[in-house]
Amino acid sequence: MVRHYPGGPRSSEVTKQLILDVAERLCAEGGVEALSVRAVCEQAGANVASISYHFGNKQRLLEEMFQRRVTPLNEERLRLLDCALSGPRDILLEEVIRSFVAPVIRGIASTSPVEGENLGNSSLIVTQFLARIYSMPGEEDFLKAHYEPVRSRFVLALQVCLPGLSLDDLLWRYNMMVGALIYAMAGPQRMARRPIVFSNVANSDLENDPEYGIEQMVAFIASGFRARGLAQEWQIKHKAVAIHSVSLAGASQKCPPL
């Protein structure tokens, strides 16, 4: 679909952003691996040379798609965390968690299609795209470059709040927090969807309130972090089982044949 812009040809930056919008939507709809440069060009009203000029190749296009969504979120996360850490009192666990989840939930609540276009990045498109990128094989280095600084800062802050929790337990729970957030990125309608058995119960007005969603997540995740640690107990339990198994094996070897 070729687009015409009043007053003359569109600028180079407009073309670049339009390519990113179209590529993001197609990626979300069909998957990262199925993304076609030709389809992007056709729907953006651009040519293949534009992809090469602005991005170099498909991989770089994917990376810029990711960066423009994730970089502002991570910057806001770190800003909120810095504000919480600079306070006059000890930082609370809930403040760390809120700094991590709030920018994402608020961002989704404010995301809407571009007026007059069908290429806007709805919350569902952004969610699908990010979820696919998270699970892409071979993207570990790219994700590490964009997420490791944020991950390290938040894990250190969580350790301050939970000094008695082992690093193993802390990392498991951090990753489960990320998983819960990815699911929540599907939007408030999915989070508030009733099971069939409750289909006759009217939805609450709270389902469209992002701040309510944030506080639900903070309360749930904080409870998970505060649960008793399992790593040390698990290691002791399995060490005991292993010793018991070795003892049984030794005893069976000493028994005379019948």
UniProtKB/TrEMBL annotation:
Keyword Zinc belongs to the record: no
Domain annotation HTH tetR-type: ranges: 13-73
Source organism: Allopusillimonas soli
Top-level division of the source organism's lineage: Bacteria
Name of this chain's protein: TetR/AcrR family transcriptional regulator
Residue spans binding DNA: 36-55
UniProt keywords, alphabetically: DNA-binding, Repressor, Transcription, Transcription regulation
Pfam family name, one: TetR_C_30
